[in-house]
Write a structure and sequence with these properties.
Blueprint: E1 9-10, E2 21-25, E3 31-37, E4 40-46, E5 62-67, E6 73-77, E7 89-92, E8 98-102, E9 110-118, E10 121-128, E11 133-138, E12 143-147, E13 177-180, E14 186-189, E15 196-201, E16 209-215, H1 275-278, E17 307-313, E18 321-326, E19 331-335, E20 341-345, E21 355-357, E22 360-365, E23 369-373, E24 379-383, E25 409-414, E26 420-424, E27 430-436
Parallel strand pairs: 1-20
Antiparallel strand pairs: 2-3, 3-4, 4-27, 5-6, 6-7, 7-8, 9-10, 10-11, 11-12, 13-14, 14-15, 15-16, 17-18, 18-19, 19-20, 21-22, 22-23, 23-24, 25-26, 26-27
Length: 438
């Protein structure tokens, strides 16, 4: 085993033994569950904003959520099959009142969404995994640039695999999320495609340049490859964004080897990784024990199995790092900003993405919980873990969802007031506001 494979885990700290759930009386006389405890107590408001959503818009899978500098909340969803409108980006004010919608070009593929202020202007960065594109847009949808299949990468130069021009040797590309550094460099994870990470440089609104490709499946193991080549994303990484047109691992400090444990199984199939908690589309299933820690798979630290989410961690300004939610391997991996692995943060089961505020990080975990990490990446607590079986994520009946329980959290962010918004991978969409009480 080489040195890099022997790097130690940052074992996430003690896990709460049980969720702390109370009830709260709201103005309408209904009761909302209270999740958490101590300094991390929240009123759980499911279906936030739904009453204001126009009848022409029906949520599909709600994948991402961000807040802009005006306090507006953006929801990115795949669009329900029965929705008259194909708009995939829905914007609300901080009270949950509908403001506007746009984004039919992401219909069916809406996935990652990142917001960043550059000068006096805020921009949204999107990953569309169905159409195989990453794109930079204004907050009202105007295109700045769009990149398609990354054929300028030596790893992907043969083109898409299977029935695509790359044949059996090709690699499929289904990007899932963004991370951006202060200097404009950014990273894209091919989470549902072939499991590599892409590092780009960017100056202002110029077209990005590829700097590095790293990760990928372990040696002698092929990436999952997905369902083909995400048509229409643009040739050679320069499609103009019309969207819908087109091995052994290190030991824990206590000496226990990571054995794999309860985790998602990769790209789209990783979405079934929450079956024990969220039904996985196969009917209610008994939830796992509350507070059960995730155990990373025993694979080389530099390999990846669905690098689903990522974030540039600036909590230590002198030592910024890249966090990668290596979901299929049930772990978070820390990298230097020159793409070298540092160590593994254990404790999550199927981490999807990250957002940071005041030293704490919120991690939506596809296995039916939202995890808070402290400044040392130790687990503070898990929120919304099931204590009774959840309905299938494919239910069309919103009343089936159990108050105070998450089904399959996929995106989450803090707002300016410390509240947490959670978007879930369920067929009819589900947006929850965790209103901070303490």
């Amino acid at each position: 085993m080489d040195d890099i494979t022997r790097r130690g885990f940052l074992a996430a700290g003690a896990v709460v033994a049980a969720p702390y759930i109370l009830k709260s009386q709201d103005k309408a006389g209904t009761k909302n569950p209270i999740l958490g405890e101590g300094e991390h107590k929240y009123e759980c408001i499911h279906d936030w904003g739904l009453a204001s959503l126009p009848a022409s818009i029906k949520y599909g899978n709600t994948h991402s959520v961000v807040e802009d500098s005006q306090g507006h909340i953006y929801i990115h969803h795949t669009v329900h099959k029965d929705s008259p409108s194909l708009d995939s980006v829905v914007v609300f004010d901080d009270k949950g009142k509908f403001v506007r919608s746009w984004g039919p070009m992401f219909h069916g593929g809406a996935h990652g969404m990142h917001i960043r202020k550059e000068g006096n202007t805020e921009y949204l960065y999107f990953c569309d995994e169905k159409h195989g594109i990453v794109t930079k847009r204004t907050t009202k949808g105007e295109e700045v640039w769009t990149m398609g299949y990354p054929q300028d990468s030596p790893v992907y130069q043969k083109g898409p695999g299977s029935s695509g021009p790359g044949g059996a040797a090709g690699l499929n590309y289904r990007p899932t999320n963004f991370a951006i550094a202060p200097n404009g460099d950014f990273w894209v994870g091919d989470g549902y495609g072939s499991y590599y990470m892409f590092h780009y440089t960017q100056k202002g609104n110029e077209f990005p340049r590829l700097k590095n490709v790293f990760g990928g499946p372990p040696a002698n193991a092929a990436g999952r490859g997905g369902a083909g080549a995400a048509p229409g994303g643009g040739g050679g990484g320069r499609g103009q964004g019309k969207g819908g047109d087109q091995a052994k691992g290190p030991a824990f400090a206590g000496g226990d080897q990571a054995k794999g444990g309860d985790q998602a199984k990769g790209g789209d199939q990783a979405k079934g990784g929450g079956r024990g908690a969220g039904g996985g589309g196969r009917g209610p299933a008994a939830p796992p024990p509350v507070g059960q820690p995730g155990v990373p798979r025993d694979v080389p630290i530099e390999s990846m199995n669905n690098p689903h989410g990522n974030m540039v961690d600036l909590r230590d300004p002198a030592n910024p790092v890249l966090l990668v939610a290596d979901r299929g391997n049930a772990r978070i991996v820390r990298y230097t900003l020159d793409d070298k692995p540092i160590d593994v943060v254990a404790g999550t089961k199927s981490p999807c993405h990250f957002h940071e505020q005041k030293g704490n990080i919120v991690v939506p975990d596809l296995q039916a919980r939202v995890t808070l990490l402290d400044k040392n990446n130790k687990i503070i607590l898990h929120l919304g873990e099931p204590t009774m079986p959840n309905p299938p994520r494919t239910t069309e009946n919103r009343a089936d969802f159990i108050p105070g329980q998450f089904v399959q959290p996929h995106g989450a962010c803090f707002d300016h007031a410390g509240n947490i918004f959670v978007a879930e991978w369920v067929e009819i969409g589900r947006v929850t506001k965790l209103r901070k009480l303490a």
